[in-house]
Design a protein that fits this description.
By secondary structure, the chain is of the alpha+beta class. The chain has 6 helices and 7 strands, in the order βααββαβαβαββα. It has one domain: Gcn5-related N-acetyltransferase (GNAT) (Aminopeptidase, 3-Layer(aba) Sandwich), CATH 3.40.630.30. A 7-stranded mixed beta sheet has the order 1-2-3-4-5-7-6. GO terms for molecular function: acyltransferase activity.
């Protein structure tokens, strides 16, 4: 059940300073985004950024990029840098999309940070995994590489396949991917188990 006080929505231009303040708080400077880039991408398609709001304050967000398979594979193997992806972003209404998760971040100093992570994961499932509308994005697979222990735990708890590691921005990162259909089946199984528990 969703927490009514915890809402996830598309990011807006005025959200950028708060989003970037979270990045600066938890990410090394080499991984922090440029405000002008985020502004450009939100204007292009705000659906790429989904923010978790509580009492009007941003407590976390995720950033996804729809790509063709070739660029998606290159970013997950270290053959292409994130900064090079900008010119390859596809529209969510195009066919055969491969989704790259560029960032998932929550304010872990907040006691409710697990709730925020759960809200973002639920939102991701609703908008990018479980097909609910005829114009749902045609996503084939989803991938990411992780730069933190928290990111690694999130990928592994979600049963993403570990694809190996590579060096990026002077550190070793871990690459993960999963086909969307596998996430669909996983979500359905989790929901069934949850219903069985509530009945019992």
């Amino acid at each position: 059940m969703e927490d009514p006080a915890c809402k996830v929505k598309c990011a807006q231009i005025q959200d950028i300073p708060f989003m970037l303040s979270l990045e600066k708080k938890y990410f090394p400077s080499c991984w922090c985004s440029e405000p002008t880039l985020i502004r450009r991408l939100i204007k292009k398609d705000p659906m790429m950024f989904r923010v978790c709001m509580v009492n009007g304050k941003i407590k976390g967000y995720y950033w996804v990029i729809p790509l063709e398979h070739s660029e998606w594979k290159k970013i997950l193997t270290g053959e292409m840098k994130e900064s090079q992806l900008i010119d390859h972003i596809k529209s969510f209404d195009e066919p055969n999309l491969y989704l790259y998760i560029a960032a998932v971040i929550v304010d872990i100093e907040d006691k409710q940070h697990k709730k925020y992570t759960k809200a973002l994961v639920h939102d991701f499932n609703r908008h990018f995994v479980m097909k609910q509308t005829p114009n749902f994005p045609d996503i084939r697979s989803i991938g990411a590489f992780t730069i933190s222990d928290g990111g690694q735990r999130l990928m592994e708890r979600s049963n993403f396949s570990y694809n190996g590691n590579f060096e990026a921005e002077g550190q070793i990162v871990r690459s993960y991917s999963i086909c969307r259909q596998a996430l669909v089946e996983q979500t359905i199984t989790t929901r069934l188990k949850s219903k069985q528990k509530s009945i019992a």
